[in-house]
């Protein structure tokens, strides 16, 4: 397949992947959405109507994963279907097996990273802007926080979705190793610690100093330093959460606010 034509199909799958859950159902969940995303690729590589029908029915099976991680499976399955369409020795059951066996682990990674860590972390960064502009009533003060959150949250997701689609399509069987090398667990710990330390620093600075008078460069350095210390001593994030809650309770009791 020509590079230009391949890129066109990849972009088509990337665009259609945003509709993965439009026909979500309780019986087979995202199966129709997955088939919709893969449809341009199937039409291209299976011109024979009967063979195409067989492939379409094969992909009507149960499928469910995190939407942000689904493009990894899109690219991998597209590459395998291309190999099968060329008459090479590959069992259709193997395609179905890989599709099912990768959906669950990728869903677990995606739920924990994107929804349980990345979204709260970017929301916390947006809150920093709210506190920073709390004394102002301009348009910028009212909209900078939600706009920053939407941009910062989505720009990384868009990049990851397109990058993972291209990587899984070109690397195929090596995709699992590439994803493993990303070390999501380490990234999750980093964002969690930085977010909690930032929450502590913001709370203290808001109660005692006022963020309008804080040096934000110093604040950033403090967050990075404390995060590095916490990670190095392997301190539980639950301890940080309880420490912040205790600090707020004591500050309220002694009427610090």
Separation, N- and C-terminal Cα atoms: 66 Å
Strand content: under 5%
Tell me, briefly, the overall form. Answer: elongated
Instruction: Round the Cα radius of gyration to an integer and report it.
Output: 23 Å
Q: What's the total count of β strands?
A: 0
Helix content: over 70%
Category by helix and strand content: mainly alpha
Could you spell the SSE succession in H and E letters? HHHHHHHHHH
Q: If helices are DSSP runs of H or I spanning 4 or more residues, what is the number of helices?
A: 10
Poorly predicted spans: none
Q: What kind of sheet is the major sheet?
A: none
What would the average pLDDT be, to the nearest integer? Answer: 79
Description:
The chain starts with a helix and ends with a helix. The mean pLDDT is 79. It contains 10 helices and no strands. The chain is elongated. With 257 residues, the chain is mostly helical. Helix 5 runs antiparallel to helix 6 and helix 8 crosses helix 9.
Task: Outline the secondary-structure elements.
Blueprint: H1 3-16, H2 31-45, H3 49-58, H4 70-85, H5 92-132, H6 139-171, H7 175-181, H8 184-209, H9 216-232, H10 237-253
Please provide a brief summary of the model.
This protein is an all-alpha fold and 257 residues long. The protein has helices at 3-16, 31-45, 49-58, 70-85, 92-132, 139-171, 175-181, 184-209, 216-232, 237-253.
Keywords:
257 residues, mainly alpha, 0% strand, elongated
């Amino acid at each position: 397949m020509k590079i230009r034509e391949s890129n066109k199909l990849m972009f088509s799958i990337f665009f259609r992947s945003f509709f993965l859950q439009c026909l979500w159902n309780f019986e087979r969940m995202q199966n129709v959405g997955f088939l919709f995303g893969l449809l341009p690729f199937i039409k291209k590589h299976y011109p024979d109507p009967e063979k195409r029908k067989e492939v379409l029915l094969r992909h009507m099976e149960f499928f469910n994963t995190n939407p942000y991680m689904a493009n990894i499976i899109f690219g991998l399955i597209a590459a395998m279907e291309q190999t099968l369409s060329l008459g090479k020795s590959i069992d259709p059951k193997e395609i179905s097996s890989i599709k099912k066996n990768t959906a669950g682990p990728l869903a677990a990674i995606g739920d924990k990273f994107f929804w349980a860590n990345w979204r709260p972390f970017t929301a916390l960064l947006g809150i920093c802007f709210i506190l920073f502009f709390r004394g102002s009533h301009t348009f910028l003060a009212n909209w900078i926080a939600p706009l920053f959150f939407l941009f910062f949250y989505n720009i990384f997701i868009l990049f990851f979705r397109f990058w993972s689609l291209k990587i899984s399509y070109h690397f195929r069987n090596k995709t699992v190793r590439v994803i493993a090398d990303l070390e999501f667990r380490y990234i999750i710990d980093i964002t969690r610690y930085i977010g909690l330390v930032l929450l502590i620093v913001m709370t203290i600075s808001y109660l005692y100093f006022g963020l309008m008078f804080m040096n934000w460069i110093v604040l950033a350095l403090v967050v990075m330093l404390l995060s590095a210390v916490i990670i190095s001593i392997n301190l539980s994030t639950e301890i940080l959460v309880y420490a912040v809650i205790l600090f707020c309770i004591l500050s309220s009791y002694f009427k610090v606010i």
